[in-house]
């Protein structure tokens, strides 16, 4: 593995090395290891996550060494550099037409993909459903037993290389049309109500106590979150700016498969 890393780092510094077959072979080895889960762009490290920058570099370098080609899937045709993932039956993954995963993404056994999209470098854990028209961006890390509801957009964060990718940890429920991007981390068992939008700068305000507590870039474990607004002053006057509101917590004893509606109903909120 150290040899692979050395080759990738050298090619990152000197792009002329991409013309050498040994460099191209090393890059393709990294992509192959990503595809079977032997490597990850980011991985849990204690209570935090470790980013493997050199692996992200390999993903970036994979594009210039690939040639555009026509990919035929029955009556459908694509024109791209990255092959499509195959052998779903062997992987133990259910893939409903027209779901697509790119080569170099990892789908653990038991993943269900409704018509959806998983990009290169992403990691998706067992028992997770990627629901209709949900998108998992390049290098995003999706935990086990997660539900990404219809139309959810998970940004990947391939670049900058040192940035942590967007992370959805185990047993989270991400409601319809939520957007989570820019390396935001949603911790274990959190529930996001429909239409929550989280960027790195979005204020995530815990309103469950006597005083608000503000987070950015991270949703605490077991939080139940809905869309909200707060007042911000501008030269032209006071206006409402989007934020996210933590309105309660899922109890540790709560069934991890609780539906979004049940979780929100507990806190008298209809979304």
Strand runs, count: 26
Order of strands in the sheet with most strands: 5-8-11-14-17-20-25-26-22-23
What CATH calls the topology of the domain at 2-65 is Tetrahydrodipicolinate-N-succinyltransferase, Chain A, domain 1
Distance between the termini: 48 Å
Question: Biggest sheet: strands, sense, closure?
Answer: 10 strands, mixed
CATH class of the domain at 2-65: Mainly Alpha
> Taking Cα atoms only, what radius of gyration do you get, to the nearest Å?
20 Å
How does CATH name the architecture of the domain at 2-65? Orthogonal Bundle
What proportion of the residues form beta strands (DSSP E)?
25-35%
Number of H- or I-type helical stretches: 5
Q: Please, what is the CATH homologous superfamily of the domain at 2-65?
A: Tetrahydrodipicolinate-N-succinyltransferase, N-terminal domain
Structural class: alpha/beta
Helix content: 10-25%
Which segments are poorly predicted (pLDDT under 50) over 5 or more consecutive residues? none
Query: Mean pLDDT, nearest integer?
Result: 92
| General form | globular
